[in-house]
Every structure is written in structure tokens, then in C-alpha cells.
What does this fold into?
Amino acid sequence: MTKKINLDERELPKAWYNILPDMPNMPAPPLNPGTGQPIGPEDLAPIFPMGLIAQEVSQDTWIDIPEEVLDIYRLWRPTPLYRAYHLEKVLGTPARIYYKYEGVSPAGSHKPNTSIPQAYYNKLEGVKRLATETGAGQWGSALSLACKLFGLECTVYMVKVSYQQKPYRRSMMQTWGGEVIPSPSDRTNAGRSILAQDPDSPGSLGMAISEAVEDAATRDDTKYALGSVLNHVMTHQSVIGLEVKEQLKKVGDKPNVLIGCCGGGSNFAGLAFPFMPEKLAGEDIRFVAVEPTSCPTLTKGVYAYDFGDTAQTTPLMLMYTLGHDFVPPGIHAGGLRYHADSPLVSQLHKEGIVEAVAYTQNPVFEAAVTFARIEGIIPAPESAHAVKAAFDEALRCKEEGKEEVIVFNLSGHGHFDMAAYDSFLNGDLVDYTYPEEKIAESLKNLPKVVQE
It folds into this structure.
């Protein structure tokens, strides 16, 4: 009875999987926010290094992982795949449940899978400093780590409500040399404008992105780094699913259901995208993206061109969105509080290839506590959404008598999120479903784009 399926370091993937060539339909191009025309590399050059811009539009299925990146990956990769025997027994399900555990990275989440290569490509092109945003702090801590390893400065604009809720995430970033600024701040024009309208603004990822992009665009020594949403991030995260493929082969299993929580889409895509060739070839595989009802992008948003940030400075992307000025409530799953989703994930959802489900906080934390008491690992609030969906799929298999294989991505641990667990255990968590009328109000400000 093998509970933990490991790969040797020599089995670490040597190339990332790029889903773009395998997409059933070619994605719509990002648009210049000023002209409304498709953007080119020159439009992105002020904020991204050319190495990452090339990956963003690459039509190569495989992109070699640089040896310098592999060398750092080996600090924690390959990550383990667990068979959840105890959980299966407690749930009484005939399903076989596996979870990929990304919490073994130095930053405690999947985020270093892309922060390391992003820092590497910036360093290669002479960049001295990176600016970014972070919600719960997982991305900010991952980039702070990566910058320290490659000798770069790092400035992180952290959503203010998370800055207040998660002080140890802030300490983590500062330990690795990151400068952490609560957003909205008075450091940027975007931040000052927001504070002038709402001095008590709790912040949002859209606001923090505006500040970080402005920071990068106004300094010659600085580029911007984004922890999710963009194509090159989805590509870097493919190491998750590529490893899962090899691990399942070792035990003779194939997945029927692949589950990941979804804020911007990176950890979900990292698990699911490498299985796209099998799904398109006719294999019975479902992709399930899980989000909170307080920020229901895929389940209640619209598929339209929108800005990635509040100040309307980023390229326009075709994606599911709740509106670029949407401000979600301060739920504890800060990494899922983004108004939009990856254009690739969004397109696959629009085409019916990716499913989406949304949950309120209390059932999510109930599942997380149950999981922790059975399997021992305390999930991050974001990952707990995937845990809840895996429970529901396992119970469905029980009702239908189906021996399906369920795989979910446990994308991070909850050791810095214990205040959220305190709230749940004390009965203080509030379930919040974002009202339809407020979503409609937010969507009124979508940019007017005529699609040919």
C-alpha cells in the first residue's frame, strides 16, 4: 500500500508544457489599452523581459527549462503525490483519491514554480529590481525568495486587508529581503487616486496590480512580475501536472477528475493543462476549477475584454471577469480574490472543457478541518476549496457506485493562515455570496470593445 508516490530528482521534467499549440481554438489577442489594437512585443517590453514575452506567445509545445532554474527547483521538486487511503475510508467512497502537495516548497505553495524562472529571465536581461502585487502573500513571498536567490531587489504591493490579516506572510517576505507595502498606498499615482476616493479602501488585487505596473513602468531598472493569469505563468506551472502524469503511471492509474482552486488560474492550470492532449484525444477526464462565491468569476462573471487592473493600465484581455473595479469582501482565501481569470482557463471554460463550481467559506473550512484531522496536512484557505470539491466528487462516486480516480492540487499549506481557522473554529466566519445586482453594477464599466 503506497501512500506517497515520489519521483527521483532525475525524473524532474526538463521542459515546460505550453498548451497554446493544443488549444481547440486560437485565443483572441490581448489589445493595447490606448489603441484597441492587438499588442506586440514592443508594447510589453517596458514591463516584461523579452524571454518571458517570447514564452507568452510561443507556439512551441515544449519549452526547455534552463539548468539554473532546474538547480533551484531541485530544492523541493519533484513534489509528492499522496494516495488518500484514510480519507477514502472515512468518506466510504469507491473512488481513488490522490492529492499533489505543493506545500513542500520553501515558500509553502506552488508559486515558486514560476517566481524562480521569472527572476531568472529578468536577471539574464540585466534587470535590477522587480515590482509585483500579492493577495494572501503567497506570490509575494515566492517572488521575494526568487529575487534573493538571483540577487534582485523586490517590492511587493500587498492587498491591504491581507496585509492586516496575515502579518507573518509579510514577515516572510521581509525575511527574504522583500519590501512590503500595503495597497492602496501613497507611493503611486494609482494608489493616491484610490485613497482620495476611499481612504479606508481594503484594497484588491486589481488595485495592487495597478500600483506594481506603474512602479515598474516608471523606473528603468525595474520590471513587473505577475504570479498568475498570463500564459507564461501557466506554462511554468505545468511541472505540477507533468509530475502527476509520471507518478500515476507508477501505480497504473489515470485521472477521471482533476481539481484545483482558481483565482487567476495558475495552480489549476498547472495540474490540468498537461492532460489536455489526452482529453482532446477522447479520454474521460473532467477539469474542475473551484472558486469562492464571494468572488465568482467563472460562475457569475461575463466573458469579455477587460483590464487586468483597476487603473486600466494593463492590456485588455478576453477573459471571464467581474469588472476591473470589482472589490470583493475580505474573505480569508486572499489568493482567490481576483476579478478575472486566465484568458486560457476562461476560453476553455467558455468552450465547455473546464467546469467551474463555487463555495461559501464555512463549507470550505469544514472540509479543510476534516481533511487535516484525517490526512494531517492543514490546507491553505485557497487550497481548501479544492479539498471541498474533491469531497463532493468522492461522495458523488459513492452515490453512483463509480470507482473513479480523483486528483486535486493541494497547492499550499495553511500554517500562516491560522487566524482564518480560529475564526472558523470560533464560529465567526461569515458566508458571503456576492449579490447579482452588485456584480451587474461592476460590469457596467467594462471597456467597449468591438470583436470582429
User: Anything to note?
Assistant: The CA atoms of residues 88 and 97 lie 7 Å apart. The radius of gyration is 20 Å.
